Amino acid sequence: MRQTLPFILNGQAISPGQQGRVFLPITRLYNNTPLDLEVIIEHGRYTGPTLLVTAAIHGDELNGVEICRRLLQRQLAAKLHGTLLIVPVVNQLGFIQQSRYLPDRRDLNRCFPGSARGALGSRMAAQIRERLLSQADYAIDLHTGAIHRSNLPQIRVDIDDPEGMRLAQLFNPPLILNAPLREGSFRASSVHSDTPMIVYEAGEALRFDPKSIRTGERGIRQVMVGLNMLPKRSHRSPKVKPVIATRSSWLRSESDGLLLNHAALGQYLSQGETVATIASPFVQGQVQQLKAKFDGIVIGLNHLPVVNEGDAILHIAELNGDPETQSRAASIQADFDDPNEYFPPIGDNSIT
Ligand SMILES: [Zn+2]
């Protein structure tokens, strides 16, 4: 095992085996307050890859912020091979406002690759890409569903990309969804910088979901074990392999009214099954039943009980109905029905 050199970021050196903090200046607010990107670095004693973990690029997506906090609580530097770069809050401005967006209503995750002469989001994107992503061999970007919508814990990746797929399999979420690259996204820019990146989607904006947080934190550690950054003994081999879905679509309401959802996250649906009812609170008998258009598993759910025509109700990943897929889907649902899910007290590291 080779000892490593100090890790340098923005001219600041972090010694091997230490945790350090670097503040990358991003901009100044109009009240002259500096706005920095805070990067926490776990720099291992021994050589190995650099993994970048980012959260809250959408400022209201909070599960990832807690995942980062739990990773840091483990103080991994002492046993780490390589370096872990953690940015708990990428979009500081949105985080303060409890908003997905930047103050000019731009989506930071559509501003990449960015430019030093562009709008604020574009400048932020350029700095994140040039100063952080360029230092990483691998990256994991943490997200949640939008406000009022929750996602089943899932990894989104181009399933034809072998390196991305390797990371996804190591993460071992309940479901891996093939996701084409979105222009302007952080993940799209990672392709150009040749840094394999996966996106973890779990839970709902402005909410903590213990299952999503636990699955995410464990997934990142499993990736680190698979990349030989952490010793194998801290890792238990997973019992269930993820379901892999090549495509998905939202089932939308055909009328307006009150939404009665009959399906749960992780539930396996058969084509033609009734999954939701939209009923008018004013016109008696005006009831529409929504049925699944194909066999699949519920990976996203609208929780808002009032809907307009065209609103997205259920996000369903299309699956073939073979018995193995059905049994895996059933185990995902059983796992999500676990009534014993809880938040352990801070400082309790027994959670795995
Ligand atoms: Zn997001």
Which band does the percent of strand residues land in? 25-35%
Bound molecules: zinc ion
Instruction: Return Rg in Å.
Output: 21 Å
Domain count = 2
Give the fraction of residues assigned to helices: 10-25%
Q: Uncertain segments of ≥5 residues (pLDDT<50)?
A: none
Total beta-strand segments: 19
CATH topology of the largest domain: Aminopeptidase
Mean pLDDT: 91
Describe the structure.
This protein has 352 residues and is an alpha+beta fold. The chain folds into 2 domains: 7-243, Zn peptidases (Aminopeptidase, 3-Layer(aba) Sandwich); 247-336, RNA polymerase II/Efflux pump adaptor protein, barrel-sandwich hybrid domain (OB fold (Dihydrolipoamide Acetyltransferase, E2P), Beta Barrel), CATH 2.40.50. The protein is built from 7 helices and 19 strands. Strands 3, 4, 5, 6, 7, 8, 9, 10, 11, 12, 14, 17 and 19 form a 13-stranded mixed β-sheet that branches. β5 (46-55), α1 (63-73) and β6 form a beta-alpha-beta unit. It is globular. The mean pLDDT is 91. Zinc ion (ZN) binds next to loops. Zinc ion is lined by residues 58, 61, 143.
List the helices and strands and how they pair.
Elements: E1 7-9, E2 12-14, E3 18-28, E4 34-43, E5 46-55, H1 63-73, E6 81-87, H2 92-97, H3 120-132, E7 138-143, E8 149-157, H4 162-171, E9 175-178, H5 186-192, E10 197-204, H6 210-226, E11 243-245, E12 248-252, E13 257-261, E14 268-269, E15 274-279, E16 287-291, E17 296-302, E18 306-307, E19 312-318, H7 323-336
Parallel strand pairs: 5-6, 5-7, 7-10, 8-9, 9-11
Antiparallel strand pairs: 1-2, 3-4, 4-6, 8-10, 8-17, 12-19, 13-15, 13-18, 14-17, 15-16, 17-19
The structure holds zinc ion (ZN).
Zinc ion binds at residues 58, 61, 143.
